[in-house]
Each structure stands twice: as structure tokens, then as C-alpha cells.
Amino acid sequence: VRSFQFTAASQALQSVRSPEALHLRGYCELKLRHRRLAARLLRKAVRLRPDRAFTHSLLARADRESAVTHLRRASELSPGDARLKAAAGLALVRAGAHDDGLSLLRE
């Protein structure tokens, strides 16, 4: 998918304020490497719908400072998703919480 398609999709969703639209727009902005804007949109989506694991995982990619928090929440919301658990474990290791991260990776 070309960047102009993500740009067009993001622009089309600007006036829509549903959590789904914010999620999609945040995803588009993340693909366009607009991390700050993506994080802002995804934070709004999480506030409106805190029960969506995928939105938390996208927010973790957009806002690396809060990555551990959002990846942990995503893995709680979707406990069967090994990718989320692995991403949370790696984020913990990168943040210096080696034992916690390795423990999560071993689960």
C-alpha cells in the first residue's frame, strides 16, 4: 500500500470521532511514520474503548515510552495471543526489567 493511500484514508477519517475511526486514523498515521500524531489519536481511541488489545498494541508502537504498559494491557485483553506476550516481554527487557521480561517470554 502506498503512502498516499494512508494519507487519503487518514484525511477521510478526520471528521469522524468514533473509537474505530480514531484507531484507523492512528494506524494510518503510524504507517506514515507520524508517531506523535498516531500516539495522540490512539490515546483517544484507548480512552473511548479501553478493551481493544490491537489499539493498545498500536499505541505501544507509536509511543515507545508507554510501550510496556500498553503491551501488558494488550496481552491481558488477548491472553491467547503469543505475539503480544512476546512483544511485552521484549519491551520489558529493553526497559531494563530483564527478569520480568524473560519470565513473560517463557510463559
What brief labels describe this structure?
107 residues, mainly alpha, 7 helices, 75% helix, elongated
Written account of the structure:
- The protein has 107 residues and is mostly helical.
- 75% of the residues lie in helices and 0% in strands.
- The protein has 7 helices and no strands.
- The longest helix has 14 residues.
- The chain is elongated.
- The termini are far apart.
Topology:
Blueprint: H1 3-12, H2 19-31, H3 35-48, H4 53-62, H5 67-77, H6 82-94, H7 98-106
Number of strands: 0
Structural class: mainly alpha
Alpha carbon gap, first and last residue: 35 Å
Largest sheet, in brief, is: none
SSE pattern = HHHHHHH
Q: Which percent band covers the strand fraction? A: under 5%
Percent helix range: over 70%
Rounded Rg:
14 Å
Mean pLDDT: 88
Contiguous runs where pLDDT drops below 50 for at least 5 residues: none
Summarize the structure.
The protein is an all-alpha fold. The protein is built from seven helices and no strands. The mean pLDDT is 88.
